[in-house]
């Protein structure tokens, strides 16, 4: 692929590759010479430049050091963050930062299994569905799945947070990825419910108007006992701390837990939903 074929307007990843090539050529370096300075092969550099391989955080930091962009306003590390989070709603990255440090997590979800409980196959099916609809690029789908894996990994620390999850019954009935993927996902929910730091409940359809929420709810309790709420619309997400909204949401969540099925009854419903 020659220089004219690199179009930085097609995606954040293409812009990353074009910038990498532009700075490299401005210094008169070959791909092998830049790779040597970064600790990578010239073939690896070529693959990133031409959008055949996604850059990593390590690669981006090495590029910043080699090309002198570290500490500037336009670093390769920042561009890598745009690639990774390009499919995330505005505000969600801020929420993730709180989530990874929370000592207690309360979730309510409608329609889809909450991300923190998703299997890789279920998450991939959802991301691929968005790609087919043209909502995100394949690269953004990869980033979305990678971010979710990082979020899940953050919860397996030595002192994991307490997790209280209420799922609308629709989460169990909405088939994602086919029967095999869905059955594995339902089994994952059963295993989640058996963990010592979790409570999993289902809000059944018969709850009707007594269900207090029609949209997903994320409530976090931090180590200092302050609380963080996250809510989103179709266009953006919003993080809220220690406000009247947070406290009223917590109160409604308590009512939801009281109305939802017990964990034992919820697990029984999950088992019965398997194909």
What does this structure look like?
With 275 residues, the chain is of the alpha/beta class. It folds into 2 domains: 6-85, lambda repressor-like DNA-binding domains (434 Repressor (Amino-terminal Domain)); 92-273, Endonuclease, Chain A (2-Layer Sandwich). It has 12 helices and 6 strands. Strands 3-2-1-4-5-6 form a 6-stranded mixed sheet, sandwiched between helices. α1 packs antiparallel against α5 (76-85). The radius of gyration is 22 Å and the shape is elongated. The chain starts with 11 loop residues before the first helix and ends with a helix. The model has no long low-confidence stretch (mean pLDDT 89).
Distance between the termini: 48 Å
Residue share in helices?
A: 40-55%
Number of strands: 6
Strand order of the largest sheet: 3-2-1-4-5-6
The biggest beta sheet reads: 6 strands, mixed
Task: Work out the radius of gyration.
Answer: 22 Å
Can you summarize this structure?
With 275 residues, this protein is of the alpha/beta class.
Give the topology.
Blueprint: H1 12-26, H2 31-38, H3 42-49, H4 57-67, H5 76-85, H6 92-99, E1 104-109, H7 120-132, H8 138-154, E2 162-168, H9 170-173, H10 179-193, E3 198-203, E4 217-221, E5 227-232, E6 237-241, H11 244-259, H12 263-273
Parallel strand pairs: 1-2, 2-3
Antiparallel strand pairs: 1-4, 4-5, 5-6
Helix pairs in contact: 1-5, 2-3, 4-5, 7-8, 10-12
Task: Please supply descriptive tags for the structure shown above.
alpha/beta, about 280 residues, 2 domains, elongated, 434 Repressor (Amino-terminal Domain), 6-stranded mixed sheet, about 15% strand, single chain, 6 strands, Endonuclease, Chain A
